[in-house]
Amino acid sequence: MHGVDSWSTATSVAVPKYAKPGCNDTCGKVRIPYPFGIGAKCSVNKWYNIDCNSSTPYISALNHLEVLGVDLGNQTVTVNMPKVSNCSLTKSVDLGSSPFIFSKTHNRFVYEGYCGNAVMMDDEGSFVTGCSTTCSNDSTGVTLYRNNKCSGIKCCETTIPHYLKSYGLNLTGLERQLGGDGACGSAFLVDQSAYDEGRFSGNSIPTSLLWTLGDLHYDQISCCNQAGPKARSRPR
After folding, report:
1. What is the pLDDT of residues 199-211, one digit of tens each?
2. Vertex 119, ends 107 and 125: CA angle to 5°?
3. Are 202 and 188 in contact (CB under 8 A)?
4. How many Cα atoms within 13 Å fall on the side-chain side of residue 48?
5. Using CA atoms, how far apart are residues 6 and 190, in angstroms rounded to an integer?
6. Hey, CA dihedral for 76, 79, 85, 90, is it positive or negative?
7. pLDDT tens digit sequence for 130-188
8. For the chain, give me the number of helices (H) and strands (E)?
9. Where along the chain do its domains lie?
10. The pTM is what?
11. How far apart are CA 129 and CA 32, in angstroms?
């Protein structure tokens, strides 16, 4: 990965542009730098095309996921993903043939539930990762954290592997007679910085996707000197 000072300082009052010439570089409060672009002619290819609807950006080719931010230094785009909270096997968004993967470095897998567990599986149903919460006598209903990390009581967390493109989740809650409450809880893949700062709520969770560029689009990046990495990177 070629290092680039993507957020270089400037002495002038003018805000630097990060989009292709003639293209907007913001949608609402979100900056959209190249290789992403608002409109087909402003992005490096269809996967980086951003729709800006009512000041909210979406990746049009990727299930119309809402974009929360693009980090050129980390080569990640943060999007809103749904929280899983049912007992049946649930599939994630499939990144498939896209240039995106779930970032191992910037995400953590979290399960919130009393006396239960969450298992992440690949497309063949093989175990990928997972964690479980303890059955304590604490009846306050409060999910316990220590130093922004799950304590294992009503909340647990773990890492994910490299090169993850899709996954399935299976949530299990212990029955009341076994010490649980029968509920399956909820699980999600969440951007670590957002999780540490508690910047999310509800059923949509900020998740970081690592984006990559192949040789075909290498030279096209020269359009925007401040637009970040110019080559493929090893997944992080």
Report:
1. 666 788 999 999 9
2. 105
3. no
4. 25
5. 24
6. negative
7. 999 887 665 454 455 555 567 778 889 999 999 999 999 998 876 543 544 567 888 99
8. 1, 18
9. 1-75+212-236, 80-203
10. 0.79
11. 33
